[in-house]
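ok here's the first one, seq then struct tokens
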Amino acid sequence: MAHTVYLPVGSLLYIDTSTTSTPTWVKLSEHNRQPVSIGQNRIQKATRMSNGTLRKFFIADKKEFSTSWNMLPSFSNMTVDSGYGAVDLKSYFEGSKGQGVFKLKVVYGKNQTSPFADREEIFTVSFTSCSFEIVKRNVKDAVGNPAQEFWNVSIAMEEV
């Protein structure tokens, strides 16, 4: 019998699935997750003056997030940590939340000054890209459970 193994650190990324103002956080699986890139897009206007000097007008800094998974199972009941699988994430992306803006929580780890508090940030983001590639399908197992697909998934989001 298979047993679920929970990672002690938890997931790095969580998305809000609620339809109310109170967030309902669902973790994105750590199952074969590649590094998460957290970049920054500086929105500014730069103009070169007639005397050759550069004048900049700063507008805002916006975060950009991207990551990918290799061989991610379809559903959360098949991932190592019960986090969103590929089809779960695809359904979210294609649904009303994924088509609009949603909240993303990044949980870095424990705070050094208060060892029991998570260091986390919450951003309002939207998807800029998302791709799903079926890599492999296995057949029904000995007890007749349905076939399981494994996917390569890439997502990118940007702060609004």
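and now the second one, same deal
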Amino acid sequence: MAYGANGSTNGSPRVPEFKLKEQMCEIGRRIWIKGYCAGNEGNHSVRIGPDRFLCTPTGISKGFLKPDDICTVDTEGKQVAGKRKRTSEMLMHLAIYKARPDVRAVVHSHPPHATAFAIAGVELPTCIHPEAEVFLGAVRTAKYVTPGDTRLGESLLPYVQDSNTILLQNHGTVTFSTDLEDAYYKLEIVDAYSRILLLAKSVGSIRPLDSAEMKELLELKQRFGLKEPRLEKGFENFTCANDFLSRVGGEVATRGRMVIGGGTAPSTAAASPVEKAIQQLLPDGAANYSEDEIETLVQTITDQIMATAG
């Protein structure tokens, strides 16, 4: 039997079920190559009819799927076709499908950078990166539930109406969309965004987009025809999620340094013996020096020590 590319029969191009299975295998290969799932982790699914869904099987690497491995289940998760056993987390997928009739594909994975936020219990911030705002919107974190438990789907329900990407606390991510390709793209984007945030934290301070910039960006998003639930009550009620910024904001601009008066100096915390010795050689008035001047002083002292040692 053939269904629409989005699993519907509403006039969209019809795609044979076997082709959808091949696409699921290709998406699994990409997930494996990207390192989003290790071993047999992760699962994804596609809606192919009002009461039928294709899903990946349990106990097999997503990088080596074959069309014959794909399972078919009904709306209650009962397997109706397939030689392998369906994924134990299909009930989570079905909870999303039931809550969102427009959703045609779901991808659950464990991308390392995004999962790091889920494990740390830190919400991904908004008002930082234009692509994340346009293609993801607000990314929420669902409370931890044992993987495979029927409550896993229930933990997502408070967020599925206004989100397309959700972090699963201490677990991973789930992304969903009108087709499998786009659900996969959201997986790529959420991990790339998480990685960018972690890199930015190590480089220096993070500059959020201001109110005018966000208003212009979200208006552009709406002109693209993309849903933006955060604007349903008007932009004047829009707020940015800044849990990440509030946690790291005090340290990113002075990473590895300590505040002294009007400037900063290398921190003695976790400093090597040589670094501590250099800090002790700084003049008493170092607090009145700029950061660049202190850097020059430290380099000068270091050069002198190295010259003496030579």
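notes on #2: The chain is about 40% helix and 15% strand. Residues 303 and 309 are 10 Å apart (CA to CA).
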